[in-house]
Amino acid sequence: MARPRAFDRDTALERALEEFWRHGYEATSIASLTAAMGIRPPSLYAAFGDKRRLFGEAVDRYQRTHGAFFARALAEEPTARAAVERVLREAADTYADPAHPAGCMIISAATNCGPESADVEEDLRRMRARSKRMLVDRIRADVVAGRLPAGTDPEALGAFYAATIQGMSRQAQDGASPRTLRRIADLAMAAWPAG
C-alpha cells in the first residue's frame, strides 16, 4: 500500500516554478529543486516524474497564474489598443513584482540551453510565437473593423509589441522598477497608429 504524500503538491510545484523562473531550466538542478520544494528526490520523482515533466507542470502553472494577465487582457478588452496597453501595464507591475522572480518565465527560462534541452527551448519558443500571434490577430481584427487605418501592418505591429514585452522582461531582470517599465509602456503606446 502506498504511503500518503507528506507534502503539499501545489506548494511544492509553486516553489519549483520559482526555481525554474529564477535560474532557467538547464541551470536548475534536482538538488536545488528538492531543497526549494522541501522534499527528497524520490518524492519529486514519485509526484512529478522527472525534471522535464516537472518543468512542464511549472510552465502550465505559470501560465494559469503569474502569466495569465496576457490572455485575459486580450480576451476582455474591447479594442486591440486597450488590450495591448493593459498587457504592457500589467507586465510592468508583474515583471518587477518583488514577491517572485523578475521578468517572464516563458521568455527567460530556456535562455542558453544546450542541445540536450532543445525540446524545452522549442516549447517555450512556440508559446512566445502563440502569444505574438494573439497580438497580431487582435490587431488584424481592429484593422478589419475599421478601428485602425487600413494600411496598418498587423504582423509588424504585433512583432513590435511582442519585442517590447520581451524587452520589459529583460529590463525587470536587470532591476528596472515598475515605474520605469510603465514609462516604457507609455512610450510604446505612443507608437500606436492613429486612426
Describe what this molecule looks like in 3D.
- The chain has helices at 9-23, 30-37, 41-48, 51-64, 69-76, 80-95, 105-108, 118-144, 154-173, 178-189.
- The protein is an all-alpha fold.
- It is elongated.
- Helix 1 packs across helix 2 (30-37), helix 6 (80-95) runs antiparallel to helix 8 (118-144) and helix 6 (80-95) packs antiparallel against helix 10 (178-189).
- The mean pLDDT is 93.
- The chain has two domains: 9-61, Arc Repressor Mutant, subunit A; 68-191, Tetracycline Repressor, domain 2 (Orthogonal Bundle), CATH 1.10.357.
Short description:
The chain is mainly α and 195 residues long. The protein contains ten helices and no strands.
For the largest beta-sheet, the strand count, sense and barrel status come to: none
Q: From N to C, what is the helix and strand string?
A: HHHHHHHHHH
Q: So how many helices?
A: 10
Shape: elongated
The CATH architecture of the largest domain comes to Orthogonal Bundle
In total, the number of strands is: 0
Number of domains: 2
CATH class annotation of the largest domain:
Mainly Alpha
**CATH topology (level 3) name of the largest domain:** Tetracycline Repressor, domain 2
Low-confidence stretches: none
Roughly how much helix do the residues carry, as a percent range? 55-70%
Give the class from helix and strand content and strand pairing. mainly alpha
**N-end to C-end Cα span:** 67 Å
